[in-house]
Amino acid sequence: MARKRRDGNTTKKDRRMSRKSATRLTLSAIMLFEVSACLLLALRGNPIDLRALGLAAGLPVLAWISVNVIAKRLHADAMLVMLMSFLCGLGVILLYGLSPARGLRHLQIYMVGIVAFAVCMVAVRLIHDWRALCWLMLPLCVLLLLLPVAIGQEINGAKNWIAVPFLGSFQPSEFAKVALVIVLAQFFTSLRGVRGMLPALLFAVGCLGALMLQKDMGMAVMYYLVTLLMYWAASSNAMFTLLGAVGGVAASFLGYAMFAHVKVRVAIWRNPWSDALGKGYQIVQALMAIASGGIFGLGLGMGQSRVIPEYSTDFIFAVLCEQFGILFGVCVVAMYVIIVLRGIAIALSARTSFNALLALGCSLLIGLQTFVIIGGVIKMIPLTGITLPFVSYGGSSLVACMGIVGLLCGVAAKNSEARREDQRLALLTEAV
To answer: What is the structure's pLDDT at 419?
Structure first.
């Protein structure tokens, strides 16, 4: 028995050492990529760009702190933190190459996002009863989503931004989606049956109504799909889920009939070349940028992607493919897939229904947002005005997405604590 225990401990120790080695190797590769890319940006002009040299020192330090300080002390999932750090760093590098001011702004928001990540992770670990907080979120989030309708700015047909003095603009729907998954996870697990889940369903309907008033169809689709899939996971009610899917299709046709900019986007999706210099200009230029990049890309900072009006937000994936190549773009997509699969694995390992649904909702948000924007850029589906998580320029999206990863890591940390407790109980049982 003692020998078996020794062998088991040795095997566990070897696995831990292997994981630590893999983490160090991956982190070193990320830091090397960031240093090399920033040095290329610094040396591309004459004189040398000193701010880019500062990025060459600052970005790797941020990645190292995120993994070896914050993630380690909070017992976060190292793989999720490294992938998040790489994608955020990639966003800073791409944006700086196109517009140094936007690149530096993205870096500042990245640092704010690290704080949001830590706060969300600690909240999941410390708050054991979300009920009172969720009842508070219900009216506040709906009111927050209604603000742009009253005082918001209309951009590309959607009225979903609010201007704040001295801080710039922010998008309330980005922060409300974090509250959405928390509220749905709470009410879908604490109250069973359709009547029990009614507060969460009404909340989702209220959010969708506010988004329709904003004419923000992209975010409305995300909210709807996340709600529907979380409801199905919580209830296993195939009939109501199917009815919800049919209702969603009907709502899509209604949105198409009501909003002129939606009709334009569908027409452009079907044939962008019919108005290549007008309404279809961005899609055409994005497709040309991806094609011109080829397999291995034109090089960092190269290409003509600046001709795309929304190159820093909606079409950042086209910029990425033009400069780094389609092969690199596929690797980036694979990273998002890993984040989603990692999140689903965390959900499956959760010990409570709330934690499982919370992790699932966070994974769905990241996955659906990535699919919707990349699918729109490559003309797989009609384009909607949302951002590529972590990479696109946009403070609201970046902070919200990093907060979502914080929620995921919080559930992962609780799973690890439960496993360690099980191991301690097993050892005590063996000793007795």
So the answer is: 80
